[in-house]
Structure prediction request, 111 residues.
Amino acid sequence: MTTSLYEHIEIVTNFYDDERNPFRCNWTDVEGMGYGWVWMQYEEKDWHKMMGKLVQHETKSLLKVMDDTLYFVYEKKKAKTYHFVTMGRFVTKGGWREDTIITLSNEELFY
Prediction:
């Protein structure tokens, strides 16, 4: 994933870790340039650098669970989206699922 080719970056993570209902998304974290939680620690001039580091962190984490992860790539005229679906080991026995969706675009993104 080459983040330097794109002006806007967004990471959406959906967590499915409700033991009683593993198919219910009970938490969504959205990080983008100017919205989410992470950007609040940085000045606007550093947002792209910060989001690039966040993408790098996410991809390193995904490499650790690669055997349990499916991925899809969607390309549209204005955006490229990487969608990773990670199924925790033994998901049928109370495990977890996490979706990580990374969108790169040269047009402004709106979650």
In short: The longest helix spans residues 47-64. The chain is about 15% helix and 35% strand.
